[in-house]
Specification:
The complex is a heterodimer of chains A (about 1000) and B (about 190).
Chain A: E1 14-23, E2 26-32, H1 36-42, E3 49-50, E4 57-58, E5 71-74, E6 81-85, E7 95-99, H2 113-116, H3 125-130, H4 137-148, E8 162-174, H5 178-187, E9 194-197, H6 214-228, E10 233-236, E11 239-245, E12 249-255, E13 271-283, E14 287-289, E15 302-304, H7 305-313, E16 322-327, H8 332-341, E17 345-350, H9 357-365, E18 369-372, E19 374-380, E20 387-392, E21 405-408, E22 411-415, E23 418-420, H10 423-427, E24 432-435, E25 440-443, E26 454-456, H11 466-483, H12 499-502, E27 528-530, E28 535-536, H13 537-545, H14 551-558, H15 571-582, H16 586-589, H17 603-607, H18 624-629, E29 633-637, E30 640-645, H19 653-666, E31 668-672, E32 677-682, H20 686-693, E33 706-712, E34 718-728, E35 731-736, H21 741-755, E36 762-765, E37 770-776, H22 780-785, E38 802-807, E39 810-815, E40 824-830, H23 834-844, E41 850-852, H24 855-864, H25 905-908, E42 913-920, E43 932-934, E44 945-955, E45 960-968, E46 977-981, E47 987-993, H26 1003-1006
Parallel strand pairs in A: 1-7, 8-9, 8-13, 9-10, 13-26, 15-22, 16-17, 16-22, 17-18, 31-41
Antiparallel strand pairs in A: 1-2, 3-4, 5-6, 5-7, 11-12, 12-13, 14-23, 19-20, 20-21, 24-25, 27-28, 29-30, 31-37, 32-35, 32-36, 33-34, 34-35, 37-40, 38-39, 39-40, 42-45, 42-47, 43-44, 43-46, 44-45, 46-47
Helix pairs in contact in A: 5-6, 5-11, 7-8, 13-14, 13-15, 19-24
Chain B: H1 4-10, E1 19-22, E2 25-29, E3 34-39, H2 45-55, E4 66-69, E5 72-78, E6 81-86, H3 91-100, E7 108-111, E8 116-122, H4 126-131, E9 148-153, E10 156-164, E11 169-175, H5 179-190
Antiparallel strand pairs in B: 1-2, 2-8, 3-6, 3-7, 4-5, 5-6, 8-11, 9-10, 10-11
The chains are: A alpha+beta (about 1000), B alpha+beta (about 190).
Chain lengths: ~1000, ~190
């Protein structure tokens, strides 16, 4: 029974290429050119899944990306992907698909009980039942999510690679049907850069699924070939425009190798994410057929009419020998003819009493029985349609009365009209207007957003006839490319003679809700308008009764249009039914917003290549390889990889840090300080500039001397700190914190460019020009003396000065500054020599017990001296006075940034939180950074917080733990004991001390 | 004291001059050269004349272009900022004469020789490789030989310059610390383009 529903000939499939695949563990075959949907249908498989809420059996509805039902769990293991639409999966050999929303099996599903108890699961059920009490939602949610099903995500890392890229073009055309091809053709030809994007595997749009019209087919082929041959044209098939953002910025996902099957793409990425900036956009996105809302219209086998045509014409699949076509418009007559031509017994049921004589004649010609003014009143069959019952409609369309007929059939091809795909226009900010002649919303060209210049053409503009599509597309392509300053090309028109196939939707008489013999919601049947979220016409009535009349309320109350298909087939039906209930016109009900993405997309594609090692940029110093060789454990500091500590074999972090910390105070250690921000400042007004930027005085700093400075923001709060050295008359070298380098340069430039443009000051970042090694420890001078020609005596080279000379034969600037309180030299050499300097010092340091130390030991060492780290001990609410650093704030300067804020009463009060040292009563307890100092310990929070721990370490030099912290009125509380409440509930007692724990007199640093 | 030969042997570049080819695209770290940032009033004819004398060319005056003559190239970075590549001299030998061409206190000359390295990207798909990381439009119509642009590539700040339109060739100047990241990025996407 292989491919029992496959026609003997026809279709855009390659019958010589047989492909094996499995669905729910059963093997099938299909052909190259099939989708998973068409291949399943060819094998007579109509039951493809269970619905989201009621677990009703469901089958295919559509043939395109609007499919709401046929969601598949594609592939296994790391490659598995949930919620893929069978209609969008190109068949490949070995494909494995499984149905979703069913347990234990598709045929017998426990959740289907929901359907029987539907009376107790009305719209808003979840909303009303589970949102109160709010605290219980987390409990309910797990159960509901499991019961609701949908697919499962893989637990393994994604084995695929993705690529994202930017593109710029003059004219972007969305949609490769007749309108889009015409637009692209008109726009191409001169030098204009044109992009044409279509979600299908080949161009041609709706014509691919229509009965062959040779003139149209050859026009499509010729147009596509000409565009493909043009170097200025980028053709992107298998690509979906997912979002349309401001200033004609659009995103698209190209499925590069999905159609080859997992792991078969070679080195090519699985998908490519396009970020496109277009001067003009032509939207030719087509339209989507919408279903009629009738009793039990969700049974497997009830499909959109054009989908049935597509399966017949494009894939050579006649899904059943007995087909009922049910319509309120002319377009479904094509399906009746397509099916009849393929050998099916076809019955046409048209809700309209009056139908054109020509359509009736065509049906007669193909021996199709026609009922006009009739409607389907019920559907027989649960896991598949077996028959339908039809009855005459009353003149007002509100009821059924008269003779009923039962017609055996396996397929109902139905059409409720065509909804223009206005998603892109709406996303671009354009407003819609209702077109009564086509019963649908179309773009209002007068209400397009000016920042997104473009045009909507063809079916998405409400123009369904092939000739109109091509003419509109050509016109828009011409206007678009001329607006970019290029010459348009002529577009040849195909000969259009096939009235049935080229006239689009034709006439329509809307019937939004097909009545049954019972009032809506009262009989056993359900009228679905939203298949994926299982929302029925009765739910809309309920929403209206409960006062959820606005479209936004309706959507949230019933969840209509909220599933992964975003209501592509359901939204207009829902609006129209609500309009009827309210006695309003459809435009009065309005529409909800169309949001990106147009169809679901993978996060992998959005991330593109920027995952794993490219997720976050790593910055390396010139000595990075040395650190790797020295077994460094790295810490992320901003984007920098800095050595955190250098464990010897068998050492844990604690042991390594204690050793390094001790070693610096007893012998000498070296630190890679290259990451410090460095800014070269020159110009006649440089000193005056520094006077404004820093709180202290700079004019009298002698050439060759260094000074520590604090920068404040406008609020008077500490913003950055560092040492700045005067290199020449109008020349300074500023250092900043590692993480603050870019922020400080921006800050300097902002003041120079916006407030003081007349000042002669020139700032240049030189951070990475210099590799910096900080030598710290009592033996630093002795070690450096073995490598340098600089006079290192304390008279010739005192603390806080800079000397130039050679170190290890390398031209160097040596700054005698210290972040440890020890005798220290920061050796700066051009980056190219960084590694050489490091290795030379390493070798020369052996007799001096030189150790490498990392950022953690650096933190301990500086904290022992009470040196703050901006951003750790400060948090943007700390003034110099809070840090007990009044000494650095000039009392004589007329102004500096932040000065005025000291006049604020809150900044000036003396009981602010202030920097103190903390020594726990138990010297082995290392406080957690962030721990609260509380007024009094209570059994449980809340307790009144009067301060917090900002830095806390174990010190081998103090042989005990110690901490820095901010304490309310702390400067006046030294000597007192305070209580700390830890997160684990413990209470700890600590003595408030001075924050300088070692060498308070500064003897070592000046030694 | 190390002699000059030992010094030179110890010199490093962030990418050790490596080269890589994939999909017809070649990326290679260029031989290093010394570089100077020059800040001056380029609207002042006397200053431009003096600088032209020192640099052997009228330094690029049009925004986002570069000028080249003999052994130096000058990149426009901003109205009062240029970047000079010294292909034959050292920064130390040149800095004094450039400083002398600018009125005292009214500009700056800064040695940034080691701040940056240059990765050259060449091949028919080189523009696709660039477009994989930068939103900047690199089509030859808007970014042809002789033009330069400061933009980003991935998360790295770069200076792009277009060298050749026929065999698309670009120089990508990047900070030392970002060089390895940028290299990995370029090599990765070269395989996708």
């Amino acid at each position: 029974m292989s491919q029992s529903c496959r026609l003997d000939s026809g279709g855009r499939i390659d019958r010589s290429k047989v492909l094996q695949f499995t669905f729910d563990g059963k093997s099938y075959t299909g052909f190259k050119g099939d989708t998973l949907a068409s291949a399943l249908l060819a094998n007579g498989v109509k039951l493809l899944g269970r619905s989201f809420k009621y677990h009703r059996p469901r089958g295919l509805i559509a043939a395109g990306s609007e499919e709401p039902n046929a969601l598949m769990q594609l592939e296994n293991g790391a490659y598995t992907e949930p919620n893929t639409r069978a209609t969008c999966i190109e068949l490949y050999d070995g494909l494995v698909a499984n149905s979703q929303n069913r347990w234990p099996s598709l045929g017998f599903d426990v959740g289907a009980i929901n359907s029987s108890v539907a009376r107790f699961l009305p719209a808003g059920f979840y909303y009303k039942t589970f949102m109160w009490p709010a605290s219980m939602w987390m409990t309910y949610e797990k159960f509901i999510r499991k019961a609701a099903g949908l697919g499962v995500s893989p637990t393994e890392p994604d084995p695929d690679v993705y690529h994202s890229r930017y593109a710029t073009c003059d004219v972007l055309v969305i949609g490769g049907g007749p309108a889009g091809l015409a637009a692209a053709t008109a726009a191409a030809g001169s030098d204009a850069r044109v992009m044409l994007i279509d979600e299908q595997s080949e161009f041609g749009g709706s014509t691919l699924g229509a009965a062959a019209v040779p003139e149209v087919a050859s026009w499509v082929a010729a147009s596509t070939a000409a565009l493909a041959a043009n170097n200025n044209v980028t053709l992107l098939p298998r690509t979906t425009v997912t979002g349309y953002f401001d200033y004609n910025y659009l995103t698209a996902v190209e499925k590069v190798t999905d159609h080859l099957g997992p792991g078969n793409g070679g080195t090519a990425p699985r998908q490519r994410f396009w970020k496109i900036r277009a001067s003009r956009v032509v939207i030719a996105a087509g339209s989507i057929e919408r279903p009629l809302v009738f009793a039990d219209n969700d049974r497997p086998g009830i499909m959109l009419a054009n989908a049935v045509s597509t399966y017949i014409n494009r894939f050579g699949v006649l899904p059943d020998q007995n087909i009922v076509v049910f319509t309120n418009n002319d377009s479904a007559y094509r399906t009746a003819v397509d099916a009849a031509r393929s050998g099916a017994t076809v019955t046409m049921v048209d809700t309209r009493a009056e139908v054109s004589a020509e359509l009736t004649r065509v049906l007669q010609q193909h021996k199709v029985k026609q009922f006009t003014g009739h409607a389907i009143s019920s559907v027989q069959g649960t896991k598949g349609v077996k028959a339908v019952r039809i009855m005459p409609l009353s003149a007002d369309g509100k009821s059924l009365q008269g003779q009923a007929w039962e017609i055996n059939c396996g397929i109902v091809a139905n059409s409720g009209g065509w909804t223009p795909s206005v998603h892109m226009f709406s996303q671009s900010g354009g407003k819609l207007q209702y077109d009564n002649s086509i019963e649908g919303f179309v773009p209002d060209p007068a209400k397009a957003k000016r920042i997104n210049p473009g045009f909507s053409v063809g079916a998405c503009n409400g123009s369904f006839a092939t000739g109109d599509c091509i003419a509109e597309g050509a016109q828009a392509g011409r206007q678009a490319v001329e607006a970019c300053g290029f010459v348009a090309s002529d577009v040849a028109m195909p000969e259009l003679t096939d009235a049935l196939n080229d006239t689009g939707m034709g006439g329509i008489a809307a019937l939004w809700l097909v009545p049954t013999v019972h009032p809506v919601g009262e009989g056993p049947a359900k009228h679905f308008h939203d298949f994926q979220n299982d929302v029925t016409a009765a739910d809309i009535h309920l929403a209206a009764r409960e006062g959820y009349l606005s479209v936004e309320h309706l959507k949230r109350y019933t969840t209509t249009g909220m599933a992964t298909d975003q209501g592509k087939t359901s939204n207009l039906n829902a609006l129209a039914i609500m309009a009827e209930i309210r006695g309003a016109q459809i435009p009065e009900v309005g529409t909800t917003t169309f949001r990106p993405p147009f169809t679901p997309l993978t996060f992998g594609a959005i991330g593109g290549q920027e995952s794993k090692d490219l997720f976050l940029q790593e910055r390396h110093t010139p000595m990075h390889q040395c650190h790797v060789q020295n077994n460094a454990v790295f810490e992320d500091v901003g984007d920098w990889k800095r050595p955190w500590y250098f464990p010897h074999s068998g050492e844990d972090m604690h042991a390594a840090v204690q050793r390094e910390t001790l070693s610096v105070r007893t012998d000498v250690g070296m630190l890679d300080a290259s990451t410090l921000g460095k800014i070269d400042i020159q110009g006649a007004d440089a000193a005056e500039f520094l006077e404004m930027i820093y709180t202290n005085n700079w004019k009298k700093l002698a050439i060759g001397n260094c000074r520590y400075g604090l920068m404040l923001n406008e609020h008077g709060m500490i913003f950055d700190d560092g040492v700045t050295t005067r290199l020449g008359e109008h020349h300074y070298h500023m250092t900043t914190t590692s993480g603050g380098a870019a922020r400080v340069l921006n800050w300097l430039e902002e003041w120079l460019q916006t407030e003081w443009p007349e000042k002669q000051v020139y700032c240049t970042s030189v951070t990475e020009q210099w590799a910096v090694v900080a030598l710290n420890g009592p033996k630093a001078r002795d070690l450096l003396a073995t490598l340098s020609d600089i006079d290192l005596s304390k008279e010739a080279f005192p603390f806080m000065s800079m000397r130039e000379g050679q170190v290890a034969g390398i031209p160097a600037r040596v700054y005698r500054i210290s972040f440890t309180g020890e005798l220290a030299y920061e050796i700066n050499v051009p980056a190219r020599f960084g590694r050489q300097l490091w290795e030379t010092l390493q070798e020369a340091g052996k007799p001096f017990n030189l150790c490498h130390y990392g950022t953690e030991a650096m933190h301990v060492l500086r904290a022992e001296k009470g040196f703050i780290i901006v951003g750790q001990d400060t948090d943007g609410t700390v003034t110099p006075a809070d840090m007990d650093m009044d000494w650095i704030v000039s009392k004589t300067k007329p102004d500096f940034l932040g000065k005025r804020s000291f006049l604020r009463s809150d900044t000036a009060r003396d009981d602010r939180q202030q920097l103190v040292g903390l020594l726990t009563t138990d010297p082995t307890v290392v406080l957690m950074e962030g721990a609260h100092i509380v007024q009094e310990i209570k059994d449980a929070p809340p307790m009144t917080t009067i301060g917090r721990v900002t830095s806390s370490y174990m010190s081998p030099n103090l042989e005990r733990s110690f901490a820095l912290g901010m304490l309310k009125n702390g400067l006046a509380r030294k000597g007192e004991t305070v209580q700390l409440s830890l997160m684990n509930g413990d209470a700890v007692e600590a003595l408030v001390t001075d924050p300088v724990f070692i060498d308070k007199e500064g003897v070592r640093v000046r030694g | 004291m190390a002699d000059q030969a030992t010094l030179r042997a110890g010199m490093a570049t962030p990418l050790s001059g490596q080269s890589y080819s994939s999909n017809g695209i070649t990326i290679s770290e260029q031989q290093s050269c010394d570089k100077l940032i020059v800040r001056a009033d380029f609207s002042d004819a006397a200053t431009v004349a003096a600088l032209s004398q020192v640099l052997g060319q009228t330094p690029a005056l049009e925004a986002n272009t570069y000028s080249m003559a003999d052994d130096k190239a000058v990149y426009w970075l901003g109205p009062d900022e240029r970047l000079v590549y010294l292909h034959a001299q050292t920064a130390a030998d040149t800095i004094g004469s450039v400083q002398a061409a600018i009125p005292a206190g009214k500009g700056a000359v800064v040695d940034v020789s080691d701040y940056y390295t240059v990765i050259q990207l060449s091949g028919q798909n080189a523009r696709d490789v660039l477009s994989s990381g930068t939103p900047f439009d690199v089509h030859p119509r808007v970014f042809g030989a002789g033009q330069c642009a400061q933009t980003r590539y991935g998360s790295a700040t770069v200076l792009l310059s277009a060298l050749d339109d026929d065999t698309p060739t670009f120089n990508v100047q990047v900070r030392w610390s970002f060089a390895q990241y940028l290299w990995t990025y370029l090599a990765r996407v070269a395989g996708y383009c």
